[in-house]
Amino acid sequence: MKDMYILGIESSCDETSFSIIKNGREEISTVISSQIDIHKDYGGVVPEIASRNHVKNVTIVLEECLSKANMTMDDIDGIAVTYGPGLIGSLLVGLVAAKTLSFIYNKPLIPVNHIAGHIYANSLVEELKFPLLAVVVSGGHTELIMMEEHYKFKKLGSTLDDAIGECYDKVARVIGLEYPGGPKLDKLAKEGKYTYNLPIPKQDNSYDFSFSGLKSAVINLAHNEEQRGNELRKADLAMSFQKVAVQEIINKTEKAIKDFNIENVIVAGGVAANSFIREEMNNLCGKLNVKLSIPPMKYCTDNGAMIGAAGYFAYKDGRIADLQLNAISQDELV
Ligand code: KG4
Ligand code: ZN
After folding, report:
1. Out of 89, 148, 169, 252, which could bridge 51 as a Cys pair, Cβ 3.0 to 4.6 Å?
2. pLDDT tens profile 96-129
3. CA 17 from centroid of its chain's CA atoms
4. Among 243, 271, 299, which residue has the most ligand 1 atoms within 8 Å of its CB, making it the best to mutate?
């Protein structure tokens, strides 16, 4: 069978990224332009600024990606693009680029859901095994997705309020860590102990999550300590928060593994970089004798490679869009 080269385009948040992926498994070249340094002054991503920077970056990143691969658009067989979920202005920039390239070069336009991209990041490392459970933990998502075959997704549950990464970033901010605070909180927690008594999120039989109560409890605790003139034990608070938050994810993952005889657990999204979640997932999957896959860090945060990988399998599933394809800020993975 002829090799298939997909151009993957990602612009759903603050990374402009293009990548060329061969047969859904092999990375030929990837270029990522991150805007973290621009947004950190504001303590989070400012949507309007993000879109403007995508506009500035988009052609430069495309050209660099092609030249790194020593390829031209003629060598590309399909154009995969994140159409949602994400920031609408940001998504539109990548989408317009993809549609334009598809039209000019007469290549199929392949719509990719951002979460599918996070899951398929693992396909760049090894073959996916089914039934599979994807634990998607990122700045914008906390979802448990089950797959019994390629490109067939069943959402088991998701967060009802804050995403886990968002929660990490907000707690980090209260502790005084710079945006994005998740990785810094992870580091700080290593020096701390589980001493603060924080509320355990409501336990129920569903696969849904709720982190806003935990987040508010941390914010209130920090304010109360400040008002009383007590010193906040920042490392202990970081550890206490992450222990409660991660345990909640572990509990629901364990339930899903048992309920659906899962063979392969994939932890995907930016928070998959968290050392504590990695350790706890390792323990859980070891205990239940399930294969655990966590893509390397470069594939965990947003990138075009994961979109190119997912795009290949989406194409095989017959998912081709026309030029009417629009960006959707809150898309469900189906
Ligand atoms: O997947 P991603 O790049 O963006 C979304 O698609 O949402 O994830 C970014 C998130 C941020 O909230 C960041 O703080 C978090 O991932 N993150 C971490 C760690 N590294 C990144 N959170 C906790 N511990 C880490 N080591
Ligand atoms: Zn993401």
Report:
1. 89
2. 999 999 999 999 999 999 999 999 999 999 999 9
3. 14
4. 271
